[in-house]
């Protein structure tokens, strides 16, 4: 996709794109891509899902800030400078880690179905779990094609730190769990964009693969965040502020392992 380098909200209108995306620009984002984590990503199917299908694309563009500005997730810490070199030097290990992340994403989605506040969203959550399992299989196929054995994952201090902060109490736990999921999907969306760019001269197949995952990661992020706000909007907004600070703290911790997160 091509991106306008100007400030603010820009829309991809690439004829090859399956949907339109809304990206927020910020100086923290990767300069080669000029777009980092989406402030909000809404494809056409998401607009339909959230009962906005009667508006035109132009109208949607004009109301993006007024409707969703308080729902934007903008990270407060950059991806560490040593992350890309570490990934490029250890692609087999990173692919194994990615396989485990997709597997865990599927099981986590199913685990969300235990919350009473999400009983009415089970089909949506199932769809995410199925898509994550499909991604898991895609990574397993890549491992097999490249002769890389599936092995033990490295622990992620970042994910562990997020999940340790989830509170007890059914409603609070559901909100926190959903926000953690949104953050993980959001960081994946951000990092997959980076990988799609930096891998082009190194491994074109992987670059294309990671570019193909950006849309679904963004959609999962948006879906989880909207679910959290649907449970309790003020509380979700308050907890997002907490989690963005926590994410920034955890991102600054040293992590020697060649992993995605």
Write down the domain tally. Answer: 1
**CATH homology group:** Ferritin, core subunit, four-helix bundle
**Strand percentage:** under 5%
On the 0 to 100 scale, the average pLDDT is: 79
* Annotated CATH topology: Ferritin
Distance between the terminal alpha carbons, to the nearest Å? 25 Å
Query: What is the string of helix and strand elements?
Result: EEHHHHHHHHH
Q: Give the total of beta strands.
A: 2
SSE-based structural type: mainly alpha
Q: Which bin fits the share of residues in helices?
A: 55-70%
| Estimated radius of gyration | 18 Å
Q: Based on the coordinates given, report the CATH architecture.
A: Up-down Bundle
**What is the CATH class?**
Mainly Alpha
Shape: globular
Biggest β-sheet description: 2 strands, antiparallel
Q: DSSP helix count?
A: 9
Low-confidence stretches: 1-72
Please give a handful of descriptors for the protein shown.
261 residues, Ferritin, two-stranded antiparallel ribbon, 9 helices, 2 strands, 59% helix
